[in-house]
Write a structure and sequence with these properties.
two-stranded antiparallel sheet; alpha/beta; cytoplasm; binds coproporphyrinogen III; 46% helix; 9 strands; UROD/MetE-like_sf; Uroporphyrinogen_deCOase; single chain; globular
Length: 357
């Protein structure tokens, strides 16, 4: 296929610009989607969610389908991401937790001992029928647009289980990791198994790519990450077996971990805004594509700043084997949805014209 400007989407999601960029193949335009594109920045989302709790909504196939489609219809993004949450596999397995509005996941009985680790219930695949239904419905509705399935990585899930909720320093998590290395390994093993089950269900129902969110891995040194976390994230990707879908691996503040994040088994490394994409491409090496990395706060600035920063990210992304345009982290709730639509149009327009000298 030539890289000629042909804005028409190809017929199969497996041959979409998202999948092609993830594999380092030529694309018609740089594909763009946004982490947290489904959610509070959209009035139609708030209307649909009114009266339904976050975790109940995630288990209702019709709501999941509609909420996932909303940003695709509104912004014309090149991929849908399943409306769900990283803590959902834990909830389905029987962990007592909730997502508190404006706070995040809160766990009723945090893991504080080796016995707590051993009491963590396994995720039975037959409890994921709602997920299979939602993904099948979505794939039918999406047509040529690929659906990205996702899961939380073992480390990031462990932070919620051990801290009991969101935290900045993750001190209890690290203390447990150092004090109880065997139980830590067992905990992350179990979380890897349930994350892999969650991903397999989505891929077998038709998801065209997967993203593993290790949002908080950036709090670790490279040595600790390599020894105590990476093998478990690799186990999640390995759990996909021969399923031939691109694997995206993302964390925040991972500048020093970028080569390792790739080594865990990613086709695409997600990068936050702290490291320019040309530098990230050097750190990650030639065999992987990049995703990112506009600072979500830029979308709250004036239009000329937005345009300048989008242009910079598109230019720097040309250094990568393939580039999937995204934010460096999720859409902030106050973001004007019109700005997101504008960014999609601008990325498409810029990436169809030759690079600036
Ligand atoms: O990206 C998408 O649009 C798809 C849906 C999605 C959600 N959560 C929906 C959601 C995805 C991919 C996630 C992943 C997720 N959840 C991560 C990894 C990505 C990241 O942001 O780093 C993490 C760490 C979580 C845990 C979590 N769930 C947090 C920190 C929060 C925010 C709390 C808040 O209200 O500020 C949630 C809740 C959540 N997950 C919301 C949505 C749309 C908001 C809840 C609501 O609308 O009531």
């Amino acid at each position: 296929m030539s890289a000629a400007a042909d804005p028409a989407p190809s017929a199969a999601p497996s041959d979409s610009d998202l999948v092609r960029a993830a594999r380092g193949l030529p694309v018609s335009r740089t594909p763009v989607w946004f982490m947290r594109q489904a959610g509070r920045s959209l009035p139609e989302y708030r209307a649909l969610r009114a009266g339904t709790g976050m975790l109940a909504a995630c288990q209702d196939p019709d709501l999941v389908t509609e909420i996932t489609l909303q940003p695709v219809r509104r912004h014309g993004v090149d991929a849908a991401i399943l409306f769900s949450d990283i803590v959902l596999p834990l909830l389905v397995a029987g962990v007592d937790l909730d997502i508190k509005p404006g706070v995040g996941p809160v766990v009723a009985q945090p893991i504080r001992s080796v016995a707590d680790v051993d009491a963590l219930p396994p995720l039975e695949p037959d409890r994921l029928a709602f997920l299979d239904t939602a993904v099948r419905q979505l794939v039918a509705e999406l047509g040529p647009t690929p659906l990205i399935g996702f899961a939380g990585a073992p480390f990031t899930l462990a932070t919620y289980l051990i801290e009991g909720g969101p935290s900045k320093e993750h001190a209890r998590t690290k203390a447990f990791m150092y004090a109880e290395p065997e139980a830590w390994g067992r905990l992350l093993d179990r979380l890897a198994v349930s994350a892999a089950t969650f991903l397999r269900t989505q891929v077998d129902a038709g998801a065209s790519a997967v993203q593993l969110f290790d949002s908080w891995a950036g709090v670790l040194s490279a040595a600790d990450y390599a020894e105590r976390v990476l093998p478990h994230s690799r186990a999640v990707f390995d759990g996909l077996g021969s399923r031939d879908v691109p694997r995206i691996h993302f964390g925040v503040g991972t500048g020093e971990l970028l080569p390792l994040i790739g080594d865990a088994g990613a086709d695409v490394v997600g990068v936050d805004w702290r490291i320019p994409l040309d530098e990230a491409a050097r750190r990650v090496g030639p065999g992987r594509s990049l995703q990112g990395n506009l600072d979500p706060a830029v979308l709250l600035a004036d239009r000329s700043t937005v345009d300048r920063e989008v242009r910079r990210v598109v230019e720097q992304g040309r250094a990568a084997r393939g580039h999937v345009f995204n934010l460096g982290h999720g859409v902030l709730p106050d973001t004007d949805p019109g700005v997101l639509t504008h960014v999609v149009e601008l990325v498409h327009e810029l990436s169809m014209s030759p690079a600036h000298p």
